[in-house]
Amino acid sequence: MTKITIILQSESTSNLLMTIKKHTAVSLSEIKNHISNNIPLMEVDYVDNDEMEKMRALVEDLIKNKARFKLYEQDEDYKEELPLDHFMNSFELSRQIAEDRERLDDILVEEDDE
To answer: DSSP 3-state assignment of 69?
Structure first.
């Protein structure tokens, strides 16, 4: 299963800590530990749209706060850095696929009713 992780590379200012806490619900001391030890702040399943939405919100807030971070795509066999634009594009693509599936399901249900 492919996971997306985010590692913060900026200094942990109180503003950043509160922003991260808002999105991760992790304690401040744990967030500080993750930052100082290069441990991912958040890890999400690539195909879970709800989790991806939460990570996207965190990424957008980090960008607003001019924080430095890296995204990684990984599974059991590999780990590689994921460019920000690729992450944002894949999120949009995933959401569009889910919407298309929903529309197709609605069409099929209508055809079954006829």
So the answer is: strand
